[in-house]
Amino acid sequence: MDRDDFAAHIDHTVLGPTTTWVDVRRVLDEAAEYGMNACVPPCYVPEASAHAPEVTLATVIGFPHGQHAAEAKREEAAVAWDDGADELDVVCNLGRLRAGEDDAVAADLAEVVATVPIPVKVIVEAPLLSESELRRACEAAVAADADFVKTATGFGGGGATVADVEVMAEYLPVKASGGIGSYAEATAMLEAGAERIGASSGVELVDGFTGE
Question: Which member of 89, 108, 121, 164 is catalytic?
Answer without folding.
Answer: 89
